[in-house]
Structures are given as structure tokens and as C-alpha cells.
Design goal:
2 domains; 7 strands; Heat Shock Protein 90; alpha+beta; 390 residues; 5-stranded mixed β-sheet; two-stranded antiparallel sheet
Length: 390
């Protein structure tokens, strides 16, 4: 056991050392007392009253020394140490006073018996006081911890309500505005734009309004992923990836997609996992400067985890942004925006991992590993989907 290295003898952090030292000192006093009695009054050592006093003193001496070590290793705040010592001293003085009164009113046979009685009273009073102080300190700490936990829960609930309110504003006000902007920009592009420059401006407005809608939807997904208790189930990854690839081809136009997706591969996740692969597939095309974007999706199922690799033939990721690509961005410096941050948050939600497995001028490969669903989970999930089907 290592004690604090501070040199301030009045520091509360040194109190456990003093308590242990006090217990050791009382133990040495008892040993010295026995040695002296063996020399000068050997018959008293073997008297029943002395032996009972020694036997009943030893547990309290051990308790005092152990109590000091417990203070040092427990989660009790050093701010509580002086109060614990106060209880120790209070117990010692109080019990000693009572026993001194008894010694006065009931005279002992000899001074030797009186000294032994006083030593016994000091050990018992100090031990009981230390025990009461430790118990009170733990009770106070637990009460304060419960109060802090209650305050944190209230604060979290207030934050949740505030975030829900902001989410409502985003979806009902900002999203509606983005939809209106997109609609009018589309009309301008189709009916009012007469030059290539005007059509280009309209395309920019349309693209930015669609990006705004995507970000708002990502915020909703993030809030949903943090709301309530996590309930994971077996998700048919084979079918999910096939659906996401079909959506990609429909949304992004001409795309060469190569897939290697074994049937009946399931992972332990929830419905939000579709957002992981939707974002990665969209990034593979949206940030691709090739004349014909190519995307490959490969699934490698294992007994414990399922690995999914999504590769593209884009320009690669610059080294300057590679280390922070999954972090939140406060500006538009990162073209990947909130999408990859959302990917990492969701993958972490499922106790999985996501990384940039490879990147360069020939393209980038993202790798996602998710826990494989057990056979019983997959069977239960399939039965549930069959029951829900019309």
C-alpha cells in the first residue's frame, strides 16, 4: 500500500496514516504492558480479568489499524476524514470518561488493574468511534451520490426535452422550408432557366436544399439512437444491403455496383443500422470524381463478427482529414459532413467498429464489423417478420 507523498502534516490525506499509526501504537502499548507485568507482577498476567481484557482489546486494535487502511483505499472523500477522526476521538474520550468514573466509584485492587482498565477503555472507545465515523461517512457519500445522480437524471431529461424541441423545429420549420426551396428551385431549373449558368445556379440550390434535408434527417437519427434503452435483435444484413444498393442505383443514377453478399447473413443491431450502409454507399458515389463511379460491397461472415467492406474508385481521402474523418465537423471543411460521424455513432451503438481500411488515388475502402447474430436470434427474427407479413 502506498501512502500520499505530501509533507503537510495537517493535510486530510494523511489522516489514514495517523489512524493506522494510532492502532499500531496501542498494540505496542499492549505488548509492552504484558512484558512489564511478566517481569514485575507475573501472577497478574494469568488472572482471568486481565486475560479477558486482552482478548477483548485485540479485535478493536486490529479494527483501528484496518480502519485507517480502509479510509485510504475506499471511495470516501478525504473531506470526510476529519469527521471520522472526530468520531474516533469522541468515542475514545466518552468511553474513557465513563470508565474513569467507574474506576473512581469502584476502586480496583491495584494500580496495575486500573492501568489495564484504562488501556481497554481507550481501545474500545476509539474502535467504536472509528466504526461509527466510517459508517456515517459512507452514508453521507451515498446520500450525496444519490442526490448527484438524481440531479444528473433531471438535467439529462431537461436536455432530452430541449433536443426534442429543437428536433421538432428542424423537422417542421427548417425541413419544410428546405422542401419549399427545393421545389421552387426545381421549377426555376425546368421552366425559367434559359442559360447554362442559370441552370447551374438552380442545380446548386437544389443540391444544397437536399443536403440540408439529409443533415436534418441525420440529426433525427442521432437523437433516436440516443433515446431510450438499447434493444438489439437479429437484422437480415443480406437483404438490407441488397435494398441499400438498389436505392443507391435509383438515387445516384448510373453506377457500376459489384456485390458479394452471401444469403442469410444476420447481425445483432436494430433498424437504424441501415443508415450506416446508406451513408457509406452514398459517400462512395457523391464524393467520386470518376466518369463512371464504381462501388463494390463484400460481406465476410464470421462466427463472432460480420465484416462488410465498401470500396469505390474515387480520389481517396486526404491525409489531413483521414484521422478526423469520423468526428463531428463544425464547418464545411470536411465534405463528409455529419454522415460519417453518424456512421461511427451507430456502429459503436452495436459494439462494432468502422475504419478506413485503405485509401489512395485508386479509391477508398471502408470496413464495418458488427456482432454476428446467434442462430436462435436469427430464427426468432425471421419468425417475427413472417408473423408481421400480410
Amino acid at each position: 500500500m502506498r501512502w500520499p507523498a505530501d509533507t503537510d502534516i495537517g493535510s486530510p490525506e494523511r489522516i489514514p496514516r495517523y489512524v493506522v499509526g494510532f492502532g499500531v501504537t496501542l498494540t505496542l502499548v499492549l505488548i509492552g504492558e504484558i512484558a512489564l507485568y511478566r517481569v514485575f507482577v507475573p501472577t497478574f498476567v494469568f488472572r482471568g480479568v486481565f486475560l479477558v481484557g486482552v482478548i477483548t482489546t485485540i479485535p478493536f486494535l486490529v479494527g483501528i489499524a484496518f480502519g485507517g487502511r480502509w479510509l485510504r483505499t475506499s471511495d470516501l472523500s478525504p473531506a470526510r476524514y476529519p469527521r471520522v477522526v472526530g468520531w474516533l476521538l469522541g468515542g475514545l474520550v466518552g468511553f474513557l470518561f465513563v470508565n474513569l468514573a467507574l474506576i473512581v466509584t469502584m476502586p480496583t485492587e491495584s494500580w496495575v488493574q486500573a492501568v489495564s482498565w484504562i488501556r481497554w477503555a481507550i481501545a474500545l472507545g476509539a474502535g467504536i468511534g472509528l466504526l461509527v465515523g466510517c459508517l456515517e461517512g459512507r452514508a453521507i457519500e451515498r446520500t450525496l451520490a444519490a442526490e448527484r445522480a438524481s440531479l444528473r437524471a433531471e438535467h439529462v431529461e431537461e436536455q432530452r426535452e430541449y433536443l426534442d424541441y429543437l428536433n421538432g423545429i428542424l423537422r417542421h420549420e427548417v425541413l419544410n422550408t428546405a422542401t419549399i426551396i427545393n421545389g421552387y428551385a426545381s421549377l426555376l431549373y425546368e421552366e425559367a432557366a434559359t442559360t447554362d449558368q442559370q441552370r447551374r445556379w438552380a442545380e446548386i440550390v437544389i443540391a444544397e436544399s437536399e443536403e440540408m434535408s439529409t443533415v436534418i434527417d441525420d440529426v433525427r437519427i442521432l437523437l433516436q439512437s440516443a433515446d431510450g434503452e438499447l434493444q438489439l435483435e437479429a437484422i437480415d444484413l443480406s437483404r438490407l444491403l441488397t435494398d441499400e444498393v438498389r436505392k443507391l442505383e435509383h438515387k445516384c443514377g448510373p453506377v457500376e455496383v459489384e456485390t458479394s453478399i452471401p444469403p442469410d447473413v444476420s447481425v445483432r443491431a436494430d433498424d437504424l443500422v441501415a443508415r450506416v450502409f446508406g451513408n457509406l454507399l452514398s459517400n462512395a458515389v457523391e464524393h467520386n470524381d470518376a466518369s463512371t463511379p464504381r462501388v463494390s460491397v463484400a460481406v465476410d461472415p464470421g462466427p463472432e463478427t460480420v465484416r462488410v467492406e465498401i470500396a469505390d474508385n474515387g480520389p481517396g481521402i486526404p491525409d489531413s482529414t483521414l484521422e478526423t474523418i469520423f468526428e463531428r465537423t463544425e464547418s464545411h471543411g470536411s465534405s463528409h459532413g455529419i454522415g460519417l460521424y453518424l456512421v461511427r455513432q451507430l456502429v459503436s451503438r452495436y459494439d462494432g467498429a468502422v475504419e478506413v481500411a485503405e485509401t489512395g488515388p485508386d479509391g477508398t475502402t471502408f470496413a464495418v464489423e458488427l456482432p454476428a447474430a446467434s442462430e436462435s436470434q436469427s430464427t426468432a427474427s425471421s419468425s417475427a417478420h413472417s408473423t408481421e407479413a400480410p
